[in-house]
Structures are given as C-alpha cells and as structure tokens.
Design a protein that fits this description.
The protein is mainly α. It has one domain. 80% of the residues lie in helices and 0% in strands. The protein is elongated, with a radius of gyration of 20 Å.
C-alpha cells in the first residue's frame, strides 16, 4: 500500500484520477484491496490542492459502481452455474435459495448499505445479480452508496492532511468489527437453519 501511495505522490494529477477510478473498480472484483485507504490519501491531495474534490469523488464513485455492476453481471449470467458446479463449496444449494429469498425481500436495502459493509461488497453485488434485482435500481443505489462513502473518506483525508494515515487504524478496526458482526450473524442463521432442519426430521413419523 505504501508503494501505491508513493507512486501516486510522484505522478501527475491526471494519472492520480485514473488510479483512483481503477483501484475503486478493482476492489469490487478482487477484495480485499486497500481502495478505502487510497481514497483517504486522495483526500489529503485535495487538501494541498493537487487534485479536485468533485473530480476525485465522481471518478472514485464511478469506478466503484462499475466494479459493483461487473460482479452483478457475473452473478446474473453465471451465478447459478458457478454454485451448481460446486465452485463455491461452502455454500450449499439450500443456503443459496435462502440468500436469494433475502435479496428478493431486502436486496435494495442491502445495496444501499453495501459500501459500508467492508469486505462483503463483491458478495453483495454477486448475489444481487444472482437474485435478478432490477439493473437500473441496483445501479442507482450502488452509485449513491459509493458516493456517500467516498465523500466521507475524501473529506476525512482532506481534513487530516499529512496525518491521513491515522484513519487507517480506524478503517481497520471498523472493517474487523463489521466482519465479526456479519460472521456471527451468519453463524446464528446457519445454526437456526440446521436446528430447524434437524428438529423437523426428528418429528417425522418412522415409516419402518
């Protein structure tokens, strides 16, 4: 990450903009990737007048949205085939159907929150496509979510200036906290599902 920062510090503003958009895109396809930290660093460059806030916000948001929609289309076109062929072995077919039902019910709210769910963004976009949520609504909501999140990061970097690295600790803590909450939630849901299935099986009459 330090190498990326050093390189961005030494290149022209045009290439900084290209890098911001590219990194925001890649992070949605190959997580984890330090795009949030890079956006904060871009905010520090705004503070010293190297780049413009509006342009950086627009490009980082467009990059994030395009990356989100790329995974959306992968989920839409190939999601069921990937899961049926066992490419993702830790997700049983019953679990996939359950997740799809959640997305059908709460999907658009999940998309709004997706930029704040660090570490799960590619999963959210994949299942949004798999669940065949509206392309237009998904694009708009993912754009708005990315814009709000990137605005916060750029503003923080701009205010912190040369001390922008301080936010790295808070981002790491935030990511670990959110991930822990999501993992615990997933385990509770899985345990509840297994308990119900076991309980139903034990209550079935013995045909022997």
């Amino acid at each position: 990450m330090e190498d990326i920062v050093n390189n961005l510090s030494a290149i022209s503003p045009l290439w900084v903009y290209v890098a911001i958009a590219s990194i925001a895109y890649i992070e949605n396809i190959f997580p984890p990737f330090p795009s949030d930290v890079i956006v904060v660093f871009a905010g520090s460059l705004i503070g010293v007048g190297t780049i413009d806030f509006t342009t950086a916000l627009l490009l980082s948001t467009v990059g994030s949205t395009l990356g989100f929609m790329t995974m959306y289309k992968i989920g839409h076109w190939f999601g069921h085939r990937i899961l049926e062929e066992g490419k993702i072995k830790f997700i049983p077919k019953e679990g996939v159907l359950k997740v799809e039902s959640w997305f059908q019910k709460y999907g658009y709210w999940i998309i709004i929150a997706n930029r704040f769910l660090s570490g799960t963004r590619a999963v959210v976009s994949f299942f949004a496509g798999l669940s065949e949520l509206s392309l237009m609504r998904t694009t708009i909501l993912s754009f708005l979510s990315a814009m709000l999140w990137n605005s916060i990061l750029l503003f923080a970097g701009q205010k912190l200036g040369q001390n922008w690295r301080e936010i790295g600790f808070y981002l790491e803590t935030y990511t670990k906290t959110v991930t822990a909450i999501l993992v615990v939630g997933a385990l509770l849901v899985a345990a509840r599902y297994i308990y119900k299935r076991t309980n139903n099986a034990s209550q079935q009459p013995n045909n022997k």
